Amino acid sequence: MTRMSILAAAILSCAVAAPAQAFHPFQQNYGYVPPKKQKRSSQRAERAPQPLFGMGWDWDRPQNSGRDDEDDDNARSSASEGTLTGGGRPNISAVAPPKVSFPNSYAPGSIVIDTAGRRLYYVLSSTTAYRYPIAVGKQGFAWSGVEKISRKVAWPDWYPPAEMRARKPGLPVHMQGGVRNPLGAMALYLGSTLYRIHGTNDVSSIGTATSSGCIRMTNGNVTHLASIAGVGTTVHVLKRLPAGLARVAKAGSEG
């Protein structure tokens, strides 16, 4: 056997032995891959302006104005003013969370948000609720109160206020809904405020205090919540659940 024949046989045996790798699309990002952050030279005196694209914005603005400075902290794009595309709008399957023990006096069909525990509860009865993991407002941006869902929008567009764009040159005037938009697949607007319960394209933020006041969920979870929570649903935003209720709600699934 010649040397080339031996080499060809070895390559073929490796190809046969290597396990096949199945492609699995991103479960929550739906195929959108945010651009990697580029390392900048430590010798540069000034940091170049960050482009915006896909993962949201950090407005560094306190929440007491009642405005939604939405919402993610890592958005990037090569465009400045004008309209940005949000990318595709795939069909999102609802993902139901676990049912848990939740002894309470809230009306069935209402929503209770535990800011400290980073959980949203949809009340099913006086003893049970759905429990969803969420992201909440970062320090200085968290809030509490009672609102009602005033409207529901799938793949919502986003319009940064003019004063926000003045502080952050390069923000778009308008970003269309889609997988690149930080509002995700669904937004449930709270009263006349600009706060929302909404999806996200940054699932790594779920379970953290990182938003500018909005309540962030995975796209699958917010799609499920929107399917059972209608316009007019009462939303109780609490700083924290009572200690006893928090322990019970954290402990056990009701199936």
TrEMBL record:
Signal peptide: 1-22
Region (Disordered): 28-96
Record flagged with keyword Ribosomal protein: no
Domain L,D-TPase catalytic as annotated: residue spans: 109-238
Gene Ontology cellular-component annotations: extracellular region
Record pathway: Cell wall biogenesis; peptidoglycan biosynthesis
InterPro entries: LD-transpeptidase, LD_TPept_cat_dom, Transpep_catalytic_dom
Family: Belongs to the YkuD family.
Protein name per UniProt: ErfK/YbiS/YcfS/YnhG family protein
Organism: Hyphomicrobium denitrificans (strain ATCC 51888 / DSM 1869 / NCIMB 11706 / TK 0415)
Organism lineage: Bacteria, Pseudomonadati, Pseudomonadota, Alphaproteobacteria, Hyphomicrobiales
